């Protein structure tokens, strides 16, 4: 079995909260050594985004919550006060032999600390310096801060999410999880890996990679945004309706709900047979998918009545036999109990000082030759400060003095 894909790559991670840390975690999973820089005393802002927190063995309050845990495994935590001269020296010393420098401070903030791209490039010309911000390094909004929900609103995602107009509760709606942060984390990883390939394989040098949440959410709207660019009309909110085949949406059964997507005319005919209404497949209003889109409300109402006649398990079994895509509407308890999810190992167990068996979500990538088999718990605040500074040549007396001064 070969070493992990990014073995030998060293990353200095000054990102906080979610998008940047998620990317750094992805790269750490793939074998990179990731040194996470945190503020002495308080750490990453995400450490305050609780509850829930892990239970401290001594019953003390702590800063190891689910928000921080989800994005910081396989890293080393080093506390450094970058506002201090000594702290800035530590960061530049670490940056000298790093392949990647990641940060998500507001545009221009790190320049006053001597940690901007030009300053880091001066000590490491081949560095890949990646900035993750809300609005990017250029443009009129560049100085602004922002969080996931702001970008869901400004980027158009909320405008196409939620109940249809005229229905109870209609209006723009935020997607539940911080999906723009997650997608930005993926784009950040792609950008860093591409820059590394250009440097190490194509003979290029270091460079500044600019990734932002606003660009990401707009690009992620894909065919929805393309509809507007083609005809000048914004797509309406469709609730749980699908985006292609019809009928598609959530249907209530006698004991719960299921999601159905009828992708073509043959699937429609088979679904009608399963539901005990084969005549619908020959009804002129529903024969072709385009007909069903035009008469969407009518066919959805008909299907709604038919699904109410039996249970979720019954319909899922029959539809699966008929080769029609469908699935239950699961909560997380059902997700992690699902036999397929368990067979794929999506829940992994790691040792943690507070939990002998802490559950984490495994990396979604699987490799035949370089599988990700080791997961290390997200670090306690400053857990690796002593070791990392020792490697830089700081002795115990010096490190103790820096701690006393609040530098680390």
Summarize this structure briefly.
Keywords: Transferase. The chain has helices spanning 19-29, 66-69, 85-95, 117-123, 148-154, 179-200, 213-220, 222-231, 265-274, 289-294, 296-307, 312-321, 332-337, 339-343, 385-391, 396-404; strands at residues 10-14, 33-38, 76-79, 100-103, 128-133, 207-212, 248-252, 257-261, 326-328, 347-350, 358-361. With 408 residues, it is an alpha/beta fold.
Q: Any descriptors?
A:
single chain; alpha/beta; Rossmann fold; 2 domains; 6-stranded parallel sheet; 3-stranded antiparallel sheet; 16 helices; elongated; Putative L-carnitine dehydrogenase; CoA-Trfase_III_dom3_sf
The total tally of domains equals: 2
Q: What is the highest CATH level, the class of the largest domain?
A: Alpha Beta
Q: List low-pLDDT spans.
A: none
Write down how many β-strands occur, each being a DSSP E stretch of 2 or more residues.
Answer: 11
CATH fold-level name of the largest domain = Rossmann fold
The side-by-side strand order for the widest beta sheet comes to 3-2-1-4-5-6
Mean pLDDT: 96
N-to-C SSE string, H for helix and E for strand: EHEHEHEHEHHEHHEEHHHHEHHEEHH
Distance between the termini: 38 Å
In the CATH hierarchy, the architecture of the largest domain is 3-Layer(aba) Sandwich
Using only C-alpha atoms, the radius of gyration works out to: 25 Å
- Proportion of residues in extended strands: 5-15%
Helix- and strand-based class? Answer: alpha/beta
CATH homologous superfamily descriptor of the largest domain: Crotonobetainyl-coa:carnitine coa-transferase, domain 1
Query: Counting H and I runs of at least 4 residues, what is the number of helices?
Result: 16
| Largest sheet: number of strands, sense, barrel closure | 6 strands, parallel
Keywords: Transferase
GO molecular function, one term: CoA-transferase activity
Protein name: Putative L-carnitine dehydrogenase
InterPro entries: CoA-transferase_III_domain (IPR050483), CoA-Trfase_fam_III (IPR003673), CoA-Trfase_III_dom3_sf (IPR044855), CoA-Trfase_III_dom_1_sf (IPR023606)
